[in-house]
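ok trying again, last paste got cut off:
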Amino acid sequence: MHGLAGDRFAIRNSGAHAVVEGVGVQACEHMTRGRVVILKSVGSNVGAGMTGGALYLPRSEVHKLNSSYVGHLECEEADTEELRELVEEHYRETSSPTAASLLADWAFARRNFVRVLPLARIPRPQPSADRKSTDGLALGTHDGAPREEAEQS
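nice, full thing came through this time. structure:
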């Protein structure tokens, strides 16, 4: 979609892929599957009730996420490839100046996006026996879960 979407964009998305320039409040609310890319600004309460799928949005917008339901991760190489493909398709379909600008300096632009997932799908640190805090509780380390497990939609 070329241009801005209103409030509640991609609500209850259950498998569609969508790219939009910007959205109002409550984007991706109750999303269960699919991929959404928001190229610019978002309103508040993004991802409320989200249980699946993935959202890519500018790093500058993460403070508008509903942190009770979703969190953000740095994009891995596979995420960056998927994001670029979605932005390229968006450009082919809409001739979006925003997409064109991002693609013209992709090496820079890609670092400005994060991947948003439901909290239940974000790998959590696991306790490590070799790292102890001063009160005897184990400090967490990254669990290194395979990407395929975290990708299930």
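cool. The two ends are 23 Å apart (CA to CA). The chain has two domains: 14-122, 126-153.
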